[in-house]
Records
---
Amino acid sequence: MKRAIQPGLVILLAAGLPFTAIAMTEDDPLLYLFKADQLELREGDDENTRVFDGHFWLGKDLDKLWIKSEIEATREGTESAEWQLLYSRAIDPNWDLQIGLRADLDPEPKRNWLAIGFYGVAPYWFEVDTALFVEEDGQVNLRLMAEYEMLLTQKWVLAPEIELNWYRDDDDELMIAAGVAGVEAGIRLRYEFTRQFAPYIGVNYESLLGGTRDLARDNDAKTSDAQLVAGLRFWF
């Protein structure tokens, strides 16, 4: 899962920035990982959506620099684009504390957030990524993401996942109401040619909740969407 970087190796990554990394010692080498959790096409009722969800980290056993990215786009252009730049510190064999910045580049208006969260493996092997975001104007967003991998055979893996978002205040510009604003859930079946390379198919479901759902109805916007997905998961 982790690889020591050899002298002179240059890695070009998601942000388009070059990193030159050299292994300092055999006991605590400089490590890296680039992982595309979802590189997929989603087919819904109205249009197809292209999605990238992945991360890159660079560092040593205890301290790392993380870059996380989530991008969704249609033929009309980018619907949402989120980037996070985080300092990650291992506080337990299974958990990292992460602190940094989040930038929402789409949709308008652009938003910047302070981020603090935990990433790791909960009991029963649930992979959890949870974070509290504080926006520059005072808005607060709490996000909880969880995924579980069920090994059906040595090659076939079934992976259900869920994401919930809670907001402290109303946001009229983005039509978000205070409270739990929405849920996204999916299940994907992948075939691992190798651990690093696995195509998959599945279903993804998104639904607005509470006051956010009422705002969408008042503006004749969709409140839920079920999509068939096909994509690729890989890492190196």
---
Amino acid sequence: MSVPKIAFICVNFNNYSYTKKLCDSLVRQSGRDSQFSIDCIVVDNSTDEEDSLALSEFSEKHSWIKHLHASENLGYFGGLNYGLKNAALDIYRYVVIGNNDLTYESSFCQELCRANYGRNIYAVCPDVITEDGIHQNPHNLVQIGLLRRFQFDLFFSHYLLAKIILFILRLIRPVKNSLLQPSTGCEIHMGVGACYVLTTEFFKKFKKLDYPHFLYAEEAYLTNQIHTAGGILWFDPDLRVHHAESASLSKIPKRTAYEFGKSSYWGCRHFLLSKKTDLN
């Protein structure tokens, strides 16, 4: 009897060392090959030829790793879509998409195979933990309100105003706190964009991620895509992932990153407050 297959798709941008750590964590998955099998698709957005060559040489040593070199930097969700396009999606029970600066706990795939998610669950959001111990999920347990959207409006109205807001926040909140985290699995409004598990129910509706920008606000677009189709996002605290955080984004100049974020925010602002489809 064949074991279920799980695909991992990530995007590499001039930081092969992180991708190697991710793949090493997949090698250490308990029950691998006996309880499930793993394929890993790495989409390479790199502009550094040496980094890309190192990734290519590493991938060639492992038949379960597929290295896809993009002809240009496709961005984060753009890169993931390139990976999805080149994956045989119908052979996988789950497709895990995310950053390459992640490492998966050795029980991740076992817990995933044990889970029995409902047919309305299109994406599962793991417990994503940063190096300083911050739990990043649920990104939003419920929809944001008018006040929160107004704060975003101010932040993305002008770069200098955004810098002032960030300066004030660092003064009044010098240490980041973990988000309010349920102790058991539950429906959430939005998961952090670093990692999602896409279910077969997602792929009955979609073949790609609905995202029209280069970077940022990916969470909002995926949430809207899933809710519009009548699905939900589910937080599963038994799936634990460690996140080095911003390994690729730290390479982008701050002003450039702000402009990417500004464009993406104003593109999705109109549906941030829209009512979720009634599933009852």
---
Amino acid sequence: MSILTPVYDGEKYLAECIESVLTQTYQNWEYWIVNNCSTDKTLEIAQNYAKKDNRIKVVSNHHFVGAVENHNIAFGLMSSQSKYCKVVSADDWIYPECVTKLVDVAERIPSVGIVGSYSINANGVRWPGLPHDTTVFSGRQICRLYLLGKIGFFATPSTVLYRSILVKSRRSFFPGSAPHADAAACLICLQVSDFAFVHQVLSFERIHEAAMTTRIRVLDSFELYPLDFLAEFGPIFLTHEELKHRKEELLRDYYKFLALGFFNFRNKEFWNYHRRRLEHLGYPFYSIGLANAFCMKLLDLLLNPKQTIEKTVRRINPNRHKLNQKN
């Protein structure tokens, strides 16, 4: 069993993450911590734990790499004898029975390539929307439900267990460099394996501003990922009619998002980014869909003047709005 933690500047939470691995009821593991040229005490913390437990191995990259590449470096360090692989993000932690519960399902059902579970964060329990009375799903079924928008994302790294043979079958298990590479990896794996889900909260995922790059926040690039996935995986899992309907649905929602950008005064970088991405996917930027969405949003603002004024005030003076809320 291989447990992996790729980390960059994880000083604040890394010890808690490592402790959660050490207290697992399942103890037959190797633990690789990959330090991505951290500038804080990350390396020192990891090395101190490695001195106390020889199952913990620490590797430092010679130069800084992107988050996805750092994960792939960690995947490449797994022992050839490893049967299962578990990522624990450096700012997350797992409950003591996490690995035991996930491995138990994988051992009982050889067709399963990925085992998922609930996680909890500051907003509550992350629940993808799978039926409570079902543990095993065909990979195709899960991918179809996800692409059709029937369930949320079901397999963030800290919540799942991968069968190692699937990880080792690809040179780069997380494909590409985009932040949604973990989801793409799951959709690829589930073309040849089944998915199982343990209906228990087995991990804690920390939500904080540093978990998302500034560029992603500024550009809202996550808004385009459903269209990315549909273009790449839709023809594999969906019928022609399903693909056509879902594409129309996603584009309609996306144009509403862009129309809102006009009224939120998004900058030139934002518009250039989304125009390029749409063109790359083969969709028009200037379109009837965008014009309709803009007109509907303008009509909504005109019909709700009080709400419009309040939103404008918040954008112009957000600090004063927060102060008024406190009072």
---
Amino acid sequence: MSLWQLRLSMLGTLAIIISLSTLFFTAVLLFVFQTFDLLLLGIFVIGFNIIQWLIAPYLIDAMYRAREVTPSEKPQLHAMVERLSQKSGLKMPRVMVAKIPIPNAFAYGSPITGSRVAVTSELLNTLEDEEVEAVIGHELGHLKHRDVQVMMFVSILPAIFYFIGYSMIWSSSFRRRDEGGSGAAAIGMVSMLMYFILTMFTLYLSRLREYFADRHSASIVEDGPRKLSEGLAKIVDYTHKMKHSRKNNVGTVGSFKALFISDPDRVEADSAAISGAVGSRTDQRLVENVLTKEVTALDRLAELFSTHPNIVKRLRALQNLT
């Protein structure tokens, strides 16, 4: 997929999410209040989103045991982030290290906390320095494209529809038909359908933005496509191994998985693509093995429900940037 196709798909998906949400919220307000109140609609949607955005960094820090590290603690990591931030035209974000048992990285922040880039301690232990550099380039791409703000906004909309649907269906069970019970039940079921549809569009938008962040890393890191490809393949491989050896710990890290550079919940599917390369002599051989795999119909179906692209498709897209 070319750059203009990615941009067109992203803008089109955003337009669909916003349009469907606005139309349905309007219909709900007309049914409940017998009037159209644009101000109420805006306050309800925007206010909910802003509150979540402001407090999310605190939740993430607590959940993933992320703490800021100083230049004296991690001089090489700080130097990487500072150099790549300058190349990206970004203000230096706060550098965080998360104590979770998988190799991964994520970018997040809010107006209260500022921007943050976090790597897990396991990532620093697993990847080579050049691969860590490419991963950081990817995360800075998310900050450059304001993905944190965009995904926070679109992710809250399906949740609101779920809340409306659940509330309407629940309340309809206590109303007689002549009291609007059937109408409330209909709105509830349609809300649940809208929740599913918007969730699918939100997941698609998330996958598109991963491609954009990959492109950004390739543009600011020397030999970026190779370094990021190797890093991603190794992350999937090591996460798969850890998921079997540390089931109790690894299974608890997926709450904010859309932030990660690689989805830990896809590790079983993605690891199948690199299983034949386990024990390869070089990291590049690991990547080459992935590129020979065929993306099956089952793989494409599984990808629809993922925040991240299929690993084979993702590495092929990176190869096209070389």
